[in-house]
Sequence to fold (423 residues):
Amino acid sequence: MISHFHPFLTQPDLVVLNNLSRDIHTAEKPELSPSHQGDPKGDPPDDATTVQLLDSFNNEASENFQPTVFTGWDEKDIPKPIFRYLVQPYTSWAKRIVRRPTDVVFLTHIVLYLTTSVPSALYLFYHFSWPHAIFHWVMQGWYCGSFTLMLHNHIHNNGLLASRYTRFDKVWPYILEPLMGHTWDSYYYHHVKHHHVENNGPGDLSSTIRYQRDELLHFLHYVGRFVALIWIELPLYFWRKNKKSLAWRTLASELSSYAFIALMARWNLRATTFVLVVPLVQMRIGMMVGNWGQHALVDEVEPDSDFRSSITLIDVPSNRHCFNDGYHTSHHLNPRRHWRDHPVAFTKDKARYSAGRALVFHNIDYIMMTVTLLRKDYMHLASCFVPIGDQIGMSQQEIANLLKTKTQRFSEEDIMRKYGRLG
Fold:
């Protein structure tokens, strides 16, 4: 089913896909099982070789180790003089600032946003113009995905930078969050303290299980409710769970953010619209579009399984530009797992993924997953499907039929029977 390897995939993703390709080839034609080599461009490696290779990418003592410096380019893509005289000195300096030597890219992005988004926003308030406003909106739209997944790593691991830079590590999110469409601390409260606790179950305010997940009207209701009501529903959720401190802090976070927006609007309404309001609406819609794609395919038999209520994507937007966000099942299995460890963790746990009948796709991101589901184009989803375990050997039509069963709406009776609770 792996018909095409995108040339812009990360090296670990290429290794993982080659390994999965080997499994498919071996299962379908065992007499033609490939030789056990570790070269991603040759015969796919066996599991032990794959794990060893993936581990070496993250081991600073290995010759295969490379820190991630940029999302758009790897070391091989950078002209040698530029790499030697600019990138290499920067990387050596940056590795002393970030918490892990793999994570130079986080400092790159923090510097990028502080030196582009912040000055652009300030100048719009000083001297508004429509061309600049539109440019700023487009720029922030381009930034917001990578920023949000960098923030995702920050909130799960209590920071990104070395301990001596803790103060700065705590401050930069408060500067950048409003510019990228986040209210202060709300992502932490909703994602870490709520979503990972409820795990797309009946008590999750962003749960998909009560919706028919290939129906446009259901999707619009899902997004509209979140955009309009999450500011009050999340504090009320914490209050019902007797987490009153979290309830007050969440409400204070939301209201202080809105008060800040209102204050800035009194100064310059047009600038506030493009700098703060449009990104906020855009981000909240985007997060629900993404969450729908992440949790639209839910098993009708065992919906509370991490393997059966989330998916794994091996694609360019999710993994190259958004720090391996495609390995969503791996993230739910261990929310504090470092982003560079997801490909090797997936490979080590491949038997559990197979036994759990997990769903793996390639060459499709979460946004297109949502769009494709709403178009009910299950044949296209089946063409992106990477079969594992017992799924190997299924026809494209059989896979399409299988996927369609995973989008069915759960009734309140179904929820009580499967989860033993309604909220």
Remarks:
- The beta strands are 311-314, 359-362.
- The mean pLDDT is 94.
- The two ends are 39 Å apart (CA to CA).
- Residues 109 and 115 are 10 Å apart (CA to CA).
